[in-house]
## 1
Amino acid sequence: MDPQKIMSNLQNPAALTSINPLGFWDAALGTLSRELSPQQFKTWIQPLTFITFEESEQSLTIGAPNRFKLDWIKKTFADRFQELASEYFGQSTTLNFVLDIDGGSPDLTPKNKELTTENNEASVALQSKNLIEDEVLVEEQSFEIEDHSKLNPNLTFDTFVTGKANQLARAASIQVAHNPGASYNPMFLYGGVGLGKTHLIHAIGNHLLKEKPNARIRYIHAEQYVSDVVRAYQQKAFDRFKRYYHSLDLLLIDDIQFFSGKSRTQEEFFYAFEALLGNKSQVIITSDTYPKEMAGIDDRLISRFDSGLTVAIEPPELEMRVAILMKKAANEGIPMSEDVAFFVAKHLRSNVRELEGALRKILAFVRFHGREVTIEVARTALKDLLSIQNRQISVENIQKAVADFYSIKVADMYSKRRPANIARPRQIAMFMAKELTQKSLPEIGELFGGRDHTTVLHAVRKIADERSHDGQLNHEIHVIEQTLKA
Ligand SMILES: Nc1ncnc2c1ncn2[C@@H]1O[C@H](COP(=O)(O)OP(=O)(O)OP(=O)(O)O)[C@@H](O)[C@H]1O
């Protein structure tokens, strides 16, 4: 698309609505998030990147972060994207799905990136699929296990920003990378969406690969493992399947919650797990929750997951979010000052993927308009995101959620009463108000019955400190936060 034309369309919202490709992207994500389960959306759609729109050819390019996701998207979601694009643009639109390992910025400059283009006319009929053992839909094809590590070389310890939220997970990962198959086996890494679990396990694999280039390493998403089991089943190729998986030095298996309810997969994984540990090979597993909390997973697997080292990754704290934004912006060649990073990080709190998305929006805006990265620019570029966030969380909402959680009256948030069962929830609410809103300490004090800002500061420090070593308190704060965001 002609950059001049983009500029003039950007200045003319009416024109923009008809061709705005970023508008299409936001709308498509919105629709798919409603149509799919949160887990499907998180796994398949969220990691996609919008790359280019060529107006002259009426074609859109969408990037997927790895080969597996690329293939899956093309097979499973291409038709739906096609429909959404045609609806949005009011004319037939060609979709290209490409590998975009870096998760590159959305840049509407034509052909600004070198891409492994895989033209996917979405009209191409999907291949026939079979439903096997109620496990997963797979295409008919010959059973071949790809003998590659599937590691993403960009996901290393060097590119991983550390803070309180992930320092334990990082330290454990470094230990395991240096001594695979030794004491922490298996290592079970759990945490919410987009917090860096995949990044860390790739970092372990990349480290080992560098130390021992001949090591047999395999990264696999749990859903791909399920597909492998189904194909081995179809083609009676379990011997080959076992030979491959049982002979690895390091198996990295991501998002194992996808095994839920898939009994044959779990059985095969159990054998693989036993064989690998027997050989002193390292197994590393990630999940969205800790082993005992997993639903639909066999007890004998759960007890094995729990038998090594289980370590959590928490959502990044404010300073860490700032550091991540600044590092990633600098890597893109567009430095972000600390005050802009603080502004963004204060508004976007849930996970690193969300921060990366926001950064991409800001960088795209800056590139189109030739502007510097300022708070004003960030505010404009993130207008939609910020309005959602602001709608969600106010000090009053926090006071109500905390009072409900601890079964006290909301009025106790403002009262002068000081028994511990009231004072502590009040301090937690003050802490959360500081973390989750843009209010200053004096403003928060005012909203808590006219308290002094030093009282708020004391509460914020106390709860922050306790939270860092009190797992129960940490959990309670998470639960309240989830209620607020629901
Ligand atoms: N501490 C960090 N430093 C730098 N980048 C990070 C950090 N944590 C996460 N990221 C980046 O954020 C994005 C999401 O992280 P990742 O895919 O590892 O999350 P995840 O925990 O595996 O999420 P999911 O459960 O959705 O698979 C990736 O691009 C990753 O590189």
## 2
Amino acid sequence: MNRRMGTRLLWAVLAGAAADLAGLGLIAAAAWLITRAAEQPPLAALSVAIVATRAFATSKGVFRYAERLTGHDVALRAQAGTRERLYQALIPPQQPRHGGADLLSRMVDDTEAVQDLLVRCLLPAAAAAVAGLAAVVIGLTVLPVTALVLTAGLVLAGVLLPAGTAAAARRWSARIAPARAALAARVADLVHGSADLAAYGADDEALAKALAADEALAALERRQARVHAAALAGGTLVQGLTVAAIVLLAQSAGASSVGTAVLALTSLVAFEPVLPLAAAGERLAGITAALRRLREVRSATPVIAEPAAPAPVPSGPLTVEIDNLVVRHSPRPAAAGTFATPGTSTAPGTQATPAAEGTPGTPAQDGGRAAVDGVSLRLGPGQRVAIVGPSGAGKSTLLAALMRLVEPESGGIRVNGVDLRDLAADDVRTLMTGLTQDPYIFRASLRDNLRLAGPEADDEALRKAVHDARLGGWVERTGWDAELGEDGKTVSGGQLQRLALARALLYDPPVLLLDEPAEALDEETADRLMADLLDVTRDRTTLLVTHRLKGLETVDEIVVLDEGRVVQRGTHDELVAAAGYYRDLWESEVLTRR
Ligand SMILES: Nc1ncnc2c1ncn2[C@@H]1O[C@H](COP(=O)(O)OP(=O)(O)OP(=O)(O)O)[C@@H](O)[C@H]1O
């Protein structure tokens, strides 16, 4: 927390304490006024108390307003700062330790814990401490022994009880979290698997399981609520007993009726800011868990080591040389914090639970083998190289290494003689980037979806990119301002890939990387897309990962990968002439076209 935030927090604490003190003063002055008035003194003897009562009543409201304003201001700023730091921590590529839904829950729910920590725990505790201290001082001046009793009561209700509720909350959450996780997994099954459940008549059984999980959770929550209510009642009981003891002590010490009333009412009011601390203690347990989860995300180490002094970005026509490159992924993360059981998806926004953390992860690669294992290749200016190979051969990993998203284990990549490790990762991606395997279409207009790759691009440049991606007709029909659905749900597979291609063409990197642009498209659409793509990339330095071989006669070199290694390389004609993976794939492609 910086100094300005510290000052703001101090103002909030002071305003809260002032509001509680004004409440205390109000009650003390009013108690004195009422009991003294009963003795029918001259009016002048009451005038100071009358003015004080009015002043305390008015200032209490003003101070409370100021506390809410400054307290929420500082809490919301702290929350925004936490979110910003979280986003910053997520920008450098890192080993994905958290699933999408889990990360979303951390960004939304857990960052709210920062707000709660300040507004519900720290500020009320500080204000309660000041008000309690003031009440003890009043007790000390009127009848010292009552100050002792009041201190004991306040410590019990304001320190021991909250510590107890915090410990109980931790224990309960350890029991409730798995039950909530089980229910969320059942609900996710019901929602995402409803069609399959209905098709196989398994919906009643799935519903019964979800209801049973719901009942188990409700039973635990009912028991937790009873403990919670008992804790709150315990606080009120301590308050009542303390006040009764103070009245008895005052009477046995022969205190005046005015003194007794002041002591009793100030003690009563001193508990007002203290009693909510039991609930704050309960919330604190959740808050510390949330802050721990946020620290985990922020402490994730980036997979890429940035150079201390990045080299200047190479310019002019680029030559990329990959030399004996070895890339090994670290083990895939556990399904940390998600509710999903294997094979189920997680409802977005669901809360991460400690219980679900630590599920055994999927091993990265069979026997820890390298995803890319000694690959060398050269891509000169204007050349096109295609990478072909079965699923899991390491094609996408190779592109990831070129985009500096993964760190090589050995070997290296040089651009115009400069090692990629000497360049800033962002600079590398200005040189080499393109169409990723899973292009994402944002819930924004078509124009904005394209502008992602060229915020400064004018209409002419946008039109050229969609024209080159052979998307002009569709864009004319749909309109530039048409809203596209999240994840491209409102466009067809072919349009989505072409939009992503238009984006890559608009960005116009010196080296264009294309990862399976025709993936998941039907035969005809894929053929058309590949033909257009090979046409538009003519004379562009391009590395193309593909499963489709039609049209590859036009590229300069084809590299066949298998299990991370280069098993064949050459032109289309050379590879078709030799026995091996490429010829087998080509023959099966030809057969399916007949
Ligand atoms: N992030 C990752 N963490 C751990 N292992 C990974 C990761 N990404 C890929 N792998 C593993 O590395 C190997 C190569 O994967 P890669 O995605 O590069 O293959 P690919 O040839 O692109 O496959 P496909 O054609 O199916 O996309 C596979 O065994 C895969 O399981």
